[in-house]
Amino acid sequence: MHAVILAGGKGVRLRPYTTALPKPLVPIGDQHAILEIVLRQLSAAGFTRCTIAIGHLGEIIRAYVGDGAQWGMRVDYATEESPLGTMGPLLNLRDRLPETFLVMNGDVLTDLDYADVLHRHRQSGAPLTIATYARKVHIDFGVLTTAASKVVAFTEKPSMDYRVSMGVYGLSRATLDGYTPGLPLGFDELVLDLLRDQNPPHAYDFDGYWLDIGRPDDYDRANAEFTSRKSLLLKGA
């Protein structure tokens, strides 16, 4: 199985941590970088190949990971000379990728079964599979509903439930057909194109542990919780 890790972002939301370190190498706990945890998880799940798309401070990632042998994987790299969005780097890699593969952000901390995501993607026949997670969003204001300059309803500081993308996807190579290598392609653009063409993505709903380390609050939480959750996150790794 082949995974592509997207690790080319500047990590603006995590500054000043990412001033000298690329976001996937920020430390979690006392011993591990987030990218190391991801690679150990992928290896334990049976992935033998990994391509890391690098950009900002990418040479530091290359020096840290090397050829992947320490995790029992073969790792190669794709350099992003200019920002290409979430899916854009894959267009330049298309000829190096198998028919189906896993794509994920390099700043995800989760106990998601990556192999099962790819397996379910293959079974679904969908062009794209999106791992999803339930998030509750708290609105810190009283919410008004208006009509014809009149307030017709009011809710005080409501909570709203959404399913959000976890930044982990199963993808079929043919889904990239028709897009131009070297041009930016965002995850949002790809999903909207698939919906417009009535070729919807498959949802892989997950209710385990997941944090987006690109968010400062989640990064702080990850460090606070890692010791107690280490056996869960690195089981079998």
From TrEMBL:
Superkingdom, taxonomy of origin: Bacteria
Nucleotidyl transferase domain span: 3-227
Entry protein name: Nucleotidyltransferase family protein
Coiled-coil spans in chain: none
CDD domains in the cross-refs: NTP_transferase (cd04181)
A Pfam family annotated for this UniProt entry: NTP_transferase
